[in-house]
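Hi F.,

I've been meaning to write this up properly since the lab meeting, where we talked about keeping a consistent format for the predictions we share between groups. The idea is simple: the sequence comes first, exactly as it goes in, then the structure tokens exactly as they come out, then a line or two of notes. No screenshots and no reformatting. I'm using this chain as the first example so we have something concrete to point to.
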Amino acid sequence: MDIPRDRLSTFEPALIAKDQRRLPGFEDHVIRMDARGMSVREIRGHLLELYGLEVSPDLISTLTDEVLAEVEQWQTRPLEAMSPIVS
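Output, unedited:
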């Protein structure tokens, strides 16, 4: 992101902070939409509606693929022999 220069260094971006590459919570929104079963096309449309951003299908796939390793690790974790049930 290109931040304009000003002589007094008083410029502070309102939407995306300095040294930040994406909107705060952007990745979480994409991952939640994917987890709810939305297609890449639906996610793109939703992001365009929410943020006014045209997002590539590759970016959406990259963000959702980052979580797959964590999900697989969680799914293959060793379980305790006995688990308490609260009703």
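Notes:
The chain has a mean pLDDT of 80.
Residues 27 and 63 are 7 Å apart (CA to CA).

If this format works for you, I'll send the rest the same way.

G.
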